[in-house]
Known about the structure:
Layout: H1 2-11, E1 17-19, H2 22-45, H3 53-76, E2 82-84
Antiparallel strand pairs: 1-2
Amino acid sequence: xxxxxxxxxxxxxxxxxxxxxxxxxxxxxxxxxxxxxxxxxxxxxxxxxxxxxxxxxxxxxxxxxxxxxxxxxxxxxxxxxxxxx
Length: 85
């Protein structure tokens, strides 16, 4: 009977995924928020006008990272998060 209940529970999830535990989700969300703050600090340290292609590329990479972090934070802010197994 126990196995049947586990199989029924697993059928609720998208194939190849598992439900992320609340503690794990909150820890991941905290890590993402910390990374976002560090990325913002790094962007604030850059000069307003980029004087080289390397500096401009670095600024773009930080902005791209910030966008990815924002999307991840949105995902992990949801109550239910499924992750690939």
